[in-house]
Amino acid sequence: MKKIYAILAPLSIAVLSFTSCISDEEVVTSSECAIVSFSVGDIKSAVTVKNASGKDTVVYKTIGGSEIKFNIDQVGGKIYTVDSLPNWTDLTAVVPTFSAYGNVFGQRNINAKDSLYYYITSSKDSLDLSKPFDIYVIATDGVSKKHYTIEMYKREANTDTLEWKLDNINTTFGENNRFAVAGNKLYMFYENNGELFVSSTTNGTEWTVKNTSGINYETVTAFEDKLYALGEDSYIYSSADGDNWDKASSVTVERILAADKLRLYAYDGAKIIGSSDLQTWEVYGDEKMDMLPETCISIQSITSRTNKNIELVTMVGLSSNNTDNAVSWFKVSAEDKNIDQKWTYTENIKVDDNYYVYLAGSAQSPIQYIIQLDNNKYKFPYLEDLSTTVYDNAIFAIGKNDGKYDYIYRSDDNGISWHPLTSKYPLPEGINDDTAKASIMTVGNELWIVKGGNIWKGKIQ
């Protein structure tokens, strides 16, 4: 097969030839390879419409390239549009403009085994972006390479809709609650008349209700099929049933933050610490600690599309130090210590009139870890009683705006951009009939919203 090696050989020869022609100057090569900016030119599309007499006629519509915004996911190797384009947009001959460290090559599959690679010139060559398009950036050292997939999303002519069904349940939760999923059970913790209760279910309809005590129910977090919570003595406790709790760690912490598939994370008053067994703890963050979430903390993990051993983990919540927006943190989680990263605050930083978000690494070495934004207008709003879940390979969130639930919000880029979903993805009717907290969660292939004595189940039809 003539895969990437078909590019590397001539590129290496070119570098060597150039070096041999210049004996009195040093030619410096680099291993850096990344797309650092990406945009497209105006897109003109032929659209068939009905004229005044009812006959088909062709008109031309143009979308300005400046209106089409892209995110660059350096971690996931993906370049994609922030908003979906009209369904009539012709994406078969799109001219991209990009800046890159290295040389950019497109991939064209010849057959099931072989691929042809060709050099792409910025602002000149057109690409067929009607389907995902693979490119490689080859560093000037002729060895290092980075893969990206370019995707331009279009709205379907008949957009899917989210439909809800209300189920009656045999209990009523308190005004404030906290849910967790461990094993095959869904647990709901809440206070009622000064007492702490835990309700559990396997089907969402029949709930078992028990008293529990000795923990801060707002800190309950699921990890490895068990429940963990912060005790009144600041130690971490564990439970297999949500009712009986045992001390699980010898260290005291101020806050349980989250858990992914590998570790439980907590804040000890100075830094983020994490552990797989709650006995040996390591530091997983010590910067921007004032922006850690304090309330409504939740975590969502999505497996990387390019490496099944990597989890892209997002932690969100509310902080008293940022009342304009909810706060979002990001982490690359892996057993391989060379890949595993510390927690990083998802912060917009302006550099040379461009806005960036650092997902990992540091500002001193950002090129491998940034997503470029256009002054991210889809920041995460400050939502009271915030809760999140993963559905349709994205993060969904709900919460109160000015005391009312208004939209379902969706993030397709690990907590950076948040879009209020349209009328085709409504909240359930009656969700604002009382002041109780609503929690959104995913069970199987359904979205569930639990609130007071109601549970709504919905899925995209």
Q: What's the arrangement of strands in the largest beta sheet?
A: 4-5-10-9-7-8
Record field, number of beta strands: 38
How many helical stretches?
1
Shape annotation: globular
Distance between the termini: 42 Å
- Please, how many domains? 2
- What is the CATH architecture assignment of the largest domain? 6 Propeller
- Low-confidence parts: 1-24, 360-370
CATH class of the largest domain: Mainly Beta
The whole-number mean of residue pLDDT values reads 83
Derived from helix and strand composition plus strand pairing, the structural class reads mainly beta
Main sheet record: 6 strands, mixed
Proportion of β residues? Answer: over 45%
The helix fraction, in percent, is under 10%
Q: What's the Cα radius of gyration?
A: 25 Å
* CATH fold label of the largest domain: Neuraminidase
Summarize this structure as a short list of keywords or feature phrases.
single chain, 38 strands, Neuraminidase, six-stranded mixed sheet, 461 residues, five-stranded antiparallel sheet, 2 domains, mainly beta, Immunoglobulin-like
